[in-house]
């Protein structure tokens, strides 16, 4: 895994391959690409300046967080953020008390980190220019371990940055260390990563009883494993996972109702198709009896129809092909054929219809099917008309 430490402003980049290695320096982006190209690392964890974030910690129980929801958490930042809250990328974590750690009260609290969503996109666009797969994008106060003892803090001095980490999820920008330390009178142990200035030393010496340990920032150990970095709630790269909504029973009820409506709809549709199938079968029986009136008992319509075709020596495969193409159109138009004859490769149908337009429409449909259809004589018949249609391939 490649670790990249993003600078603030025009300062230098820093990188290392292993979590235990010393940080290497690259004066600019091009130098960083050249320096890391030989490492052949395709996955990277990137740390951006904590100074670009707004961190807020407030007392809150799990029940209160569930009632507040992600939108409510976002509006907790309204008095602190310089940009509208709907333009912020907000990440938060609820902790439930570890009284042996840090300067802060470890009863139930919500820890919120926010930064402009446009800035997150800017960071991602920058890192997309490199030949890496970015696994995590995190604030750089996570580079050093969280305090492990009561009333302990970690001070990071890196280039123009000064960050005071006082908890697992809480860190402050320490541009004016004197003012910040005044708000932490209970502080008894301060670990400094980097080289403090003379002004920093004066501020530290002004606190009676404060024990100070000094470390080189180049050897800062990784505070978490790679997997913990990737799953960290302040990883701004993936989308934040929203907690379950308090309205899930209503959502479940709507889903069940939708399923019931779908089942009823499917049942009605099946019943309707069954009725249509029964009507189609009745029409086919009526058509068969009109063609073969001597057949009064119908057991298997398909086999009986085939038997009649086979018994007629003058009817060949051409006739069967014509009937198979003409029959569905007669059923669709609900036009019975009172007489059917096949001779000289011509199928003659005597059709009973409501009028001449119905016969002409049937002839047009047959022609559209690629058949040669012509309308012959048309005669009145009991308020309807009887027309002769000749069909051939």
Short summary:
By secondary structure, this protein is an alpha+beta fold.
Give a verbal description of the structure.
The protein is α+β, with helices and mostly antiparallel strands and 393 residues long. The chain has 3 domains: 2-231, Nucleotidyltransferase, domain 5 (2-Layer Sandwich), CATH 3.30.420.380; 247-292 and 296-307; 315-392, Gyrase A, domain 2, CATH 3.30.1360. The protein is 36% helix and 27% strand. The protein has 10 helices and 17 strands. The strands form 4 sheets. A 5-stranded mixed β-sheet has the order 3-2-1-4-8. Helix 9 packs across helix 10 (356-368). The protein is elongated. The model has no long low-confidence stretch (mean pLDDT 84).
Layout: helices, strands, pairs:
Layout: E1 2-5, E2 13-16, E3 24-26, H1 29-37, E4 43-48, E5 54-59, H2 62-75, E6 88-95, E7 109-116, H3 117-128, E8 133-139, E9 152-158, E10 161-165, E11 171-173, H4 177-182, E12 189-193, H5 198-205, E13 211-215, H6 226-231, H7 248-291, H8 301-311, H9 317-333, E14 337-343, E15 346-353, H10 356-368, E16 372-381, E17 384-392
Parallel strand pairs: 1-4, 4-8, 9-12, 12-13
Antiparallel strand pairs: 1-2, 2-3, 5-7, 6-7, 9-10, 10-11, 14-15, 15-17, 16-17
Helix pairs in contact: 9-10
């Amino acid at each position: 895994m490649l670790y990249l430490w993003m600078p603030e402003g025009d300062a230098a980049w820093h990188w290392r391959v292993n979590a235990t290695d010393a940080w290497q320096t690259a004066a600019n982006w091009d130098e960083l690409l050249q320096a890391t190209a030989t490492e052949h690392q395709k996955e990277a964890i990137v740390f951006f300046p904590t100074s670009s974030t707004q961190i807020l910690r407030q007392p809150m129980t799990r029940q209160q967080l569930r009632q507040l929801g992600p939108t409510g958490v976002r509006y907790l930042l309204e008095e602190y953020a310089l940009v509208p809250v709907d333009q912020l990328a907000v990440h938060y974590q609820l902790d439930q008390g570890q009284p042996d750690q840090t300067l802060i009260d470890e009863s139930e609290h919500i820890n919120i980190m926010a930064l402009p969503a446009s800035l997150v996109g800017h960071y991602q666009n920058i890192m997309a220019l490199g030949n890496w797969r970015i696994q995590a994008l995190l604030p750089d106060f996570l580079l050093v371990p969280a305090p492990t003892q009561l009333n302990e803090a970690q001070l990071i001095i890196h280039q123009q940055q000064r960050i005071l980490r006082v908890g697992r999820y809480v860190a402050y920008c320490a541009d004016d260390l004197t003012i910040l330390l005044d708000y932490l009178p209970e502080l008894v142990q301060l670990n400094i990563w980097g080289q403090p200035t003379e002004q920093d030393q004066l501020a530290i010496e002004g606190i009676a009883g404060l024990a100070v340990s000094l470390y080189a920032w180049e050897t800062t150990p990784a505070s978490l494993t790679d997997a913990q970095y990737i799953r960290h709630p302040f990883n701004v790269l993936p989308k934040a996972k929203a907690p379950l909504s308090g309205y899930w029973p209503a959502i479940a009820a709507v889903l069940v109702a939708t399923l019931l409506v779908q089942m009823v709809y499917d049942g009605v549709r099946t019943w309707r198709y069954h009725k249509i199938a029964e009507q189609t079968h009745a029409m086919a029986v009526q058509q068969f009896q009109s063609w073969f009136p001597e057949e009064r008992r119908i057991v298997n319509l398909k086999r009986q129809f085939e038997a009649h075709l086979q018994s007629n020596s003058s009817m060949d495969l051409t006739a069967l092909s014509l009937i198979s193409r003409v029959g569905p159109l007669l059923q669709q138009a609900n036009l019975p054929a009172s007489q059917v004859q096949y001779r000289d490769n011509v199928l003659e149908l005597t059709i009973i219809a409501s009028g001449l337009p119905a016969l002409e429409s049937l002839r047009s449909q047959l022609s559209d099917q690629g058949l040669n259809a012509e309308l012959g004589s048309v005669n009145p018949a009991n308020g309807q008309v009887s027309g002769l249609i000749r069909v051939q391939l």
